[in-house]
Amino acid sequence: MNIENKVALITGGASGLGLATARNLHSKGAKLVLMDLNEDNLNSAKEELKDNVIGIVTNVADEESVKKAIQSAVDEFGSIHILVNCAGIGSASKTVGRDGAHPLEIFKIVIDVNLVGTFNTLRLAAEVMGKNEPENDNECGVIINTASVAAFDGQIGQAAYSASKGGVTAMTLPIARDLARMGIRINTIAPGIFDTPLMAMASDEVRKPLIEMTQFPKRLGDPDEFALLTAQIIENPFLNGETIRLDGGKRKNLLINKFTLSVKNFKVVQQKEGI
Ligand SMILES: NC(=O)c1ccc[n+]([C@@H]2O[C@H](COP(=O)([O-])OP(=O)(O)OC[C@H]3O[C@@H](n4cnc5c(N)ncnc54)[C@H](O)[C@@H]3O)[C@@H](O)[C@H]2O)c1
């Protein structure tokens, strides 16, 4: 889909990955609807971007709030062509920690914002996209969700977060199947660690091993690199139903694991052979 003159909804668009996406799509001529809980940050984003942008205080997990925001977007710009779901929250709580079992309320809140919020926004936006005049290939809309590498490789304390992001990843293909007849594509980005206010909350103790696991380049991701991928997903008509890791090859260091394995095997051989 051509980005110029299209209407793009960005949840979590007032900060971090969402704001970087907003800047990039705006520079390519999109009209923006930023949906975020944080009113101050929404106002700063609007001041920075100036033309063709509205900001709406929205809670993605709340049905009425998203319905109102989508209606405001249609009233202002007439339609919706693109949705980028970036709104999300993190959490860190062990299944059973020093203070007892994981608070159930925290687990539910994380699922509610990251998973239910993503679905809530995309189902309502897709309904509007379906009414667009089809473009090339009969395309009417593009949806991008944000999961995390924690969907595949969650760390200690990330049960709730990983479950929410695993859900976002798992629902991508069935939604692509559901929306195909409406000419709407959907893809998910699974970022590694990016330099945003969300990550700034993490201690060095958390950040250091995560950077260590990144193969190359060994640094935090730049939000502009996330924005580059969102634009490519929008512009590439054959990309559908996929979750794309954007993580500098972040994996556990297999060399160490193999080495440990061979030492263990050697010990077993030693015992067997009586060496
Ligand atoms: N930064 C990273 O390293 C990283 C890694 C993997 C995945 N992610 C995911 O990327 C997305 C964006 O994260 P970020 O790093 O830009 O964080 P961020 O905190 O900078 O931005 C998130 C935005 O979402 C908004 N938000 C939170 N709850 C909301 C709600 N209920 N309704 C509407 N808006 C709400 C916040 O106000 C904030 O502006 C999140 O889904 C996060 O889980 C981030």
Structure characterization notes:
By secondary structure, the chain is an alpha/beta fold. The protein has a single domain, classed as 3-Layer(aba) Sandwich (Rossmann fold), CATH 3.40.50. 49% of the residues lie in helices and 15% in strands. It contains 10 helices and 9 strands. A 7-stranded parallel sheet has the order 3-2-1-4-7-8-9, with helices on both faces. A hairpin with a 2-residue loop joins strand 5 and strand 6. The termini are far apart. About 3% of the residues have low confidence.
Topology:
Blueprint: E1 7-11, H1 16-27, E2 31-36, H2 39-49, E3 53-57, H3 63-77, E4 82-85, E5 96-97, E6 100-101, H4 104-129, E7 141-146, H5 150-153, H6 159-179, E8 184-191, H7 197-200, H8 204-213, H9 223-235, E9 243-246, H10 254-273
Helix pairs in contact: 1-9, 3-4, 4-6
Bound molecules: nicotinamide-adenine-dinucleotide.
Nicotinamide-adenine-dinucleotide binds at residues 11-12, 14-18, 36-38, 41, 58-61, 86-89, 113, 117, 146, 148, 191, 193-194, 196-199.
Notable traits:
275 residues; alpha/beta; Rossmann fold; seven-stranded parallel β-sheet; two-stranded antiparallel sheet; 10 helices; 15% strand; binds nicotinamide-adenine-dinucleotide
Describe the structure concisely.
This protein has 275 residues and is of the alpha/beta class. The chain is 49% helix and 15% strand.
